[in-house]
Amino acid sequence: MNSSARSARSARSVRSALGAVSLCCVLAVLGACSSDSDSADSSTTTSAKSEFLTAAEDRGEPTLEATDPVTELVIVDDVVGTGEAVKPGDTVTVHYTGASASTGKVFDSSWSRGEPISFGLDQVIAGWGTGLVGMKEGGRRTLVIPGDQAYGANPPPGSGIAPNETLVFTVDLISIDS
Looking at the record, which segments are called Disordered (predicted)? Predict the structure, then answer.
């Protein structure tokens, strides 16, 4: 089976696994007010962020299941957002859950910490930096990331991630902060 067929089969596996997952949008609220002249824009932005966070919380933490390993990044929009779209290099605020594809075991989750996290797309694994581009605020996206776009042969010590492990993340985009 060629890599395109395997990727398509993996995407179908992810979609099937996600059928059991309640749709969730993990969103973070960052209040950012500047000058008084921006107050109307800031309150609108804060309102939209609150709306996206509330939607994520209503959907709740996603449940991830084991899936086949992949050799190419698989992107599945579980919920298409209505806000701005992520561009390369943006800073974003998200809620997420990450699991090993081989076992479905969660190794990290902002949900378990009780709050979203913000980071620049140039500060994360390649699969995130590429996989979140084009995603709209308020959306939920599942990324199936091959090992070479995740941690490769050197996963973080104590993470429970095997070398070259395919990873699955479900990400709720709360806001674009840049």
Answer: 35-66
Three-state secondary structure call for residue 98: strand
The CATH number assigned to the domain holding 65 equals 3.10.50.40
Structure tokens at 164: 């070259």
pLDDT tens, position by position, 93-110:
999 999 999 999 999 999
Q: In the 8-state DSSP scheme, what is residue 27? A: B
Query: In terms of Cα–Cα distance, which of 10, 12, 108 is closest to 62?
Result: 108
- What pLDDT score does 111 carry? 95
Q: Residue 174: is its pLDDT beyond 90?
A: yes
pTM, two decimals, is 0.73
86 contact partners, CB below 8 Å, separation of at least 6: 92, 121, 132, 133, 134, 135, 136, 173, 176
- Structural domain of residue 33, as residue ranges? 3-176
Neighbours of 80 (CB within 10 A): 11
Number of structural domains the chain divides into: 1
